[in-house]
Amino acid sequence: MGLLGRYRGCFGGMHLPDGKAETLRRPIRDLPTPPRLRVPLAQSLEAPAVARVRTGDQVTAGQVIADPSGKGAVPIHAPVDATVGGFTTVDTPWSEEVPAVELQPTAKAPAPVPDAPIQLPTCNLAELLETASAAGIELQDGPQTTPQSHVEWIIVNALESEPLQTANLRSLIERPDEVISTAGWLHRTARAEHVTLVVDRRRRVLAGESASLRRATRGTAVRVVGLPDKYPQSFPMLLARSITGREVPYRQSPMDVGVWVIDVCDLLAILRAVGAGRPHTHEIVTVTGDAVERPGNYRMPLGVAVADVARHVGVHATAARVIAGSLLSGPAIRHLQTVLTNRLRALVFTRVPTPASRPPLGCIRCGLCVDHCPVGIDPRALLDLVERRRFDRVARRYPAACLDCGLCSYVCPSYLPVMRAVQRSRRHVLDA
Amino acid sequence: MSSTPDSGAEVSQQLPGPDWPPHIHSGRSIGHFHGAFLVAALPALLAGTVLFGLRSLLVCGLGVAGALIGERICQAAGRCDPPGAARRAHRLDAAVIGLLLALTLPVSVAWQVPIVGGLAAVVIGKGLLGGLGNQLWHPALVGWAILQLLFGPQVSPARYPVLARGHLVTGFISVTADSTDFFGFEASSPPPGIEAWSMRRPIELVSQFYRSDLETNRDAGSLLELFRDYLPPWSDTIRGHVAGGIGETCLPALLLGGLFLAYRGYIRWRLPVATLVTVAVLVAIWPIHTGRPASPGGVEMTALLPLLHTENGLPVGAAVVLFHLTGGGLWLGCVLLATDPISSPLTGRGQMVFGVGLGILIVVIRCNGWSDALPGGTYWAILGMSTIVPLIDRFTSRRVLGTRL
Description:
Chain A has 432 residues and is an alpha/beta fold. Chain A has helices spanning 21-25, 125-134, 167-174, 176-189, 209-217, 236-244, 264-276, 306-313, 368-372, 379-387, 407-411, 418-431, and strands at residues 29-30, 37-40, 50-51, 58-59, 64-67, 76-77, 82-90, 98-105, 153-158, 194-200, 222-227, 259-263, 282-288, 296-301, 321-324, 346-350.
């Protein structure tokens, strides 16, 4: 916390043109279930889950179709009533040739979401984490099932400083009461000292802070805080610093200083898993970009292919690129049969073609990358070291602090591959 | 030591490509930087044209031409044919170097001086000393130093011509009159047939007072006399009706250029502000002789704290500080030359250190009487500070989040 009780934003960063108005205005809609789902058995980089169904089996929505194989992995549930069509491999935005279960949905319409009031039980943190994990929720920045450290501060992240992405903020706008009550419940369950809901300072009125949020927070421990939405303020490391004043030590996570950063979508997933026993099988994804005819936030089942999404939202024939996640740090999707996974919050179809190969002009030491780096790395120096292959010297420049925000390459007036160089050095440091 | 398979060269080839984030770019390229410096230098060029006549345009044009020829020579010698965008960026860079160099020259230089300067600045200062992005010193200042060696008396003459009232822009500077009966631009009309005054730089006259009377042959007897009889009013110094290089004298024009650069984020305000503040503070406390004693053979008077020194109730000491702040190449140096990204530190803290160091060097050169050996003290000071930029960078790097807690 800064002077006079105001919250200090992160160092560096940048206000980017965000283009969120269009998707923020529209309610979250369901993506119709496509005729074929291919549910990947590994969401990101962990060991793939082991399928427990066989070809031809009938599965119902929410049934476990694969058991976790590694530590910290989660089981995978069938998103809809379906017949198991077989086993295959798919590409996800992050990895290739991932084993997958192919499902042929039997019901055309997606399962209706019951609107019955959800009762949150009294339990302890370990039980909560176990339930969440069994429901297929991966909490990357959260406490582990056997908590080593005490959760002192819970930060519910509705800030979303990434351009175009509105999944969390839109969820908050639609369900402020549920978000607040779940945050309060999480606070009691984890025996945390503080719980803070972070919203975009510019959009807090839109988020209902003035009326419904304030009404919902009355009498609870939840504090609502507005922060400037400069990118990448919403990254957990930076939020922890801005809200609690605690600095996460190098190569550690916010949980190591007792701060649990959880975004609104994950919070609502926990609510559904713990309160109603519904596993996490659908993800809310912001589908947007200048090539999309009907942009908006869509609730889509696991295993949907990019082509299914494109067909439903109406993508112009002139679309040139598809990007998964943030425009600054997400991977480009290689082909339309790529399958979406968990933890994907945005999908951007854009007509802007791949920038013609611009010749790097050489660093003029303008210092923009140093100025904008939110963690204080000197990306220019790392690029120099990587190009000269002096990997023995990269460690003392702390490349592992990099958050992958991509601002260094974004601002570089010479179009240098600065971000890649930092990532290379980080890999070197982490592998060492 | 690394046994990793992929090399740095591969990293360079992977971006910019379709697959690697970030997928968007700020749209600001090197050309914008060079263009911004060019735009920022234009007000100074315009002011120089008004104050010193159309010949200023000729000198600047020749400087730019020389720099562009130098760029051509570099590309031919390096047998490199950079693709379109890079070639344009290099040319723009050379033009900026040539223009900035020409702005430091007096309007009275012979025509070959800016050409040689522009050529030397680009070929030696930029090409041979590392190439774009790698040079330690600002190429324009390297070119200026070379000119100083080759054409010393022309580049920093004892007397500079300044157009007289009624002869701005089109006046012909080779018909000049001595400035003994010059009492300021507003007050003095030139003798018939005379279009320009020839004047000494105020800062040199002030600097004479830092040495004792015995070492130097001062023009004025005392500080009071100096300000009353020898120097133009301070307002002239600000507006630029004063001896100096083409782009050095008009402070509003330089301020405009600097504000433009700072507002658009091409330079940071810290460096020039730190320099100016340091110069002001140091000059305010640097002891200065105030003149001959009333009785012959007496000891010369010294003001230990110039800022508070008054004579006959007039704040002479404060005037010393003001003339230091506005005189010489200080503004052109710290606004357009020292802020050059390549030869200045990376971080804000480093730029602060650079600015303070620059201010100290400038004052030391001026007040120790080194100005005779080093005419154009500001530029030598910038060259000197640029030399230690790698050192400054090393000790002022930003703390990485989570380290050194």
